[in-house]
């Protein structure tokens, strides 16, 4: 016998059938996955299955700085010197300055300094005034920078250059340096890294956690500590210092 259903009765029947099929699918999935089946949802409610992924690990970081210092003996000297002259005209003052500089460079060359180690570093021409706004003369200064590579005779070379320039000579200063500090920098960097790792390990132990791998490291520009010396020349020592910033993870 055929049963006639109204539209509302037909919709209700379809909903019940869908609910039965959905419940069966969830039960089958739970059985295959080995997990505990969820309690049957009341009729007319929606059932939601949720899975959570739990990750382990720590994002904690330790940031430290490490410093490495190495001392070496300077083996070259940089001399900053020049001449100052005056004259009633620019041409006269400049000619006197040029003559004095040529005398200085010639004296340096006679002591064995190469032309490539003598460099012009400055030239200045200024008017001079008396009691009038009109210049009564001109002053000229010329400066050079000289690299002295043999410290054993550097004092003699400086003295000869000063005598050659006469009363026009001006000495601005000297600085001692290392012409090749590659090996010192390598040693300083190794010490800086070791210092940073030691500090990081101390912090990790204080926190009760093992120290993890290095994450990042950066280096500040190494700058040798300059040393000055009057004549006679005494090389003394020079320190090369390297500072690094290191970030370590906590395991």
Write a structural description.
This protein has 251 residues and is an alpha+beta fold. Helix content is 35%, strand content 31%. Helix 2 packs antiparallel against helix 3 (151-165). It is elongated and about 80 Å long.
Show unreliable segments: 1-5, 7-57, 226-232
By secondary-structure content and strand pairing, the structural class works out as alpha+beta
Rg, Cα atoms, Å: 42 Å
Overall average residue pLDDT = 77
The total of beta strands comes to 7
User: Based on CA inertia axes, which overall geometry fits?
Assistant: elongated
What is the makeup of the main sheet?
4 strands, antiparallel
Order of helical and strand elements: HEEHEEHEHEE
The spatial strand order of the largest sheet comes to: 3-4-2-5
Measured as a percent range, the helix fraction is 25-40%
Beginning-to-end CA distance, first to last residue: 76 Å
Number of helices: 4
Tell me the fraction of residues in β-strands, as a range.
25-35%
Can you give me a brief rundown of this structure?
The chain is an alpha+beta fold. Helix content is 35%, strand content 31%.
How does the SSE layout of this entry go?
Blueprint: H1 7-33, E1 61-72, E2 76-87, H2 90-110, E3 118-128, E4 137-148, H3 151-165, E5 169-177, H4 182-207, E6 211-219, E7 238-250
Antiparallel strand pairs: 1-7, 2-4, 2-5, 3-4, 6-7
Helix pairs in contact: 2-3
